[in-house]
Write a structure and sequence with these properties.
alpha+beta, Alpha-D-Glucose-1,6-Bisphosphate, Chain A, domain 4, eight-stranded antiparallel beta sheet
């Protein structure tokens, strides 16, 4: 997600911003951001609690840390997404490269996508409502199953705001005043 002054100002006012782009070759890029009135460490703690993401993130059915190689983690997840008759479960194993407390890069090493990789970025900021964290996300994806790009982009435009809002609703009550 490209960060410009207008977009950053919207995020700092509390808006949820989501962008969906088609890159060609049926690859979709989904990006978004949200301001969370909580320190980076609180947001980081939620995003990296791999064994419990299914309890804190919508669309995650199961999640487990398989390997801990220091800053590199291997996690396995199952998610459920889609609309109406096009809803399905997706399974993937991700390699996550952690740079505490600012950056998580993930890429599929096995699963239901031809391409699934992206990143979470956390930035400590001062907003009109106080100190907090600007959380941004971007992922590039191409399913390895029949899913028209227009359907994938629509599903992402529906799912990503809910995911971002869940981060805010989970982390803000856990922030120490």
């Amino acid at each position: 997600m490209e960060m410009n002054a207008d977009r950053k100002a919207r995020l700092l006012r509390g808006e949820v911003v989501v962008d969906i782009d088609w890159l060609g070759g049926d690859v979709i890029t989904a990006g978004g951001g949200i301001f969370v009135k909580a320190p980076e460490e609180v947001v980081w703690g939620m995003l990296t609690d791999y064994d419990h993401l299914h309890q804190t993130m919508p669309k995650v059915v199961s999640s487990a840390l398989l390997e801990n190689r220091g800053k590199i983690k291997i996690i396995e997840q199952t998610g459920r997404s889609g609309i109406l008759i096009f809803e399905r479960s997706v399974h993937f194993r991700l390699k996550v490269d952690e740079e505490f407390p600012k950056h998580l890069h993930f890429e599929q090493v096995d699963g239901d996508f031809k391409l699934y990789e992206g990143e979470w970025n956390l930035e400590a900021v001062e907003a009109p409502q106080g100190k907090g964290t600007l959380v941004t996300y971007v992922a590039r994806m191409k399913p390895d199953f029949f899913a028209p790009p227009i359907l994938v982009s629509f599903v992402q435009s529906q799912d990503l705001p809910a995911i971002l809002k869940s981060i805010r609703s989970y982390c803000e009550p856990r922030a120490v005043a």
